[in-house]
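Private note to self, pasted from the team thread so I don't lose it. Backbone tokens:
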């Protein structure tokens, strides 16, 4: 079976997490050899130190979770994250401006973060729960025009998360070299595999261990276990 762990960005974004929680999350990420951790901006340096030599990338967020900070602030936040050792930036586009139809604002906002990231991977969070399909398509196209590397469904903090229909729509709305990240509600192996088949290549998850334990059980030929209970807030 495919290397599922390398498609997971282990999420450590909930506001109540302590420094000890971040250390534990980085330990999980290292032991499970996932693609990355995605931490709050103030935790980027801590994660960089904790994950040194593990091969796990450090990701963080800009304009999170609402996307409505000034473009200059998003860019400054991105530069500070680069200085702290972040490899990837998940930014939230300006949802309200997208809904206004202000394409130039949305494009320039994303482009400023891409420039500040200095070649590092930028994933643009659309927050699909608040968008009509035509707005999702527009957001995907603007993100590509602005030089982003991924489009992403959700922050995990809005009323809805990743759906199969959205992954299919997003995949059809960008060029093949632009990747898709699913986040929000990816808590089971079956959900991950279904969304991967539709075109998602990265997944934001807090249920990382449950997903990978289920994968290991299936590879051993064991019966599926009960899906983990949903958690509120975050992926």
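Design output:
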């Amino acid at each position: 079976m495919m290397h599922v762990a390398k498609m997971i960005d282990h999420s450590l974004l909930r506001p109540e997490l302590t420094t000890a929680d971040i250390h534990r999350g980085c330990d999980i990420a290292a032991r499970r050899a996932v693609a990355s951790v995605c931490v709050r901006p103030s935790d980027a340096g801590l994660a960089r130190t904790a994950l040194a030599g593990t091969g796990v990338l450090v990701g963080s967020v800009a304009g999170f979770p609402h996307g409505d900070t000034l473009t200059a602030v998003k860019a400054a936040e991105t530069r500070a994250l680069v200085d702290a050792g972040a490899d990837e930036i998940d930014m939230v586009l300006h949802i309200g401006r997208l809904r206004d139809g202000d394409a130039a604002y949305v494009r320039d906002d994303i482009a400023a973060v891409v420039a500040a990231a200095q070649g590092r991977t930028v994933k643009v969070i659309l927050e699909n729960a608040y968008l009509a399909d035509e707005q999702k398509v527009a957001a995907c196209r603007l993100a590509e025009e602005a030089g982003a590397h991924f489009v992403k469904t959700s922050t995990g903090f809005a009323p809805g998360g990743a759906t199969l229909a959205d992954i299919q729509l997003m995949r059809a709305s960008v060029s093949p070299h632009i990747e898709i990240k699913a986040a929000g509600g990816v808590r089971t192996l079956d959900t991950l595999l279904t969304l991967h088949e539709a075109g998602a290549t990265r997944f934001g998850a807090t249920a990382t261990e449950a997903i990978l334990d289920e994968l290991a059980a299936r590879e051993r030929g064991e019966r599926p276990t009960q899906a983990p209970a949903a958690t509120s807030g975050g992926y």
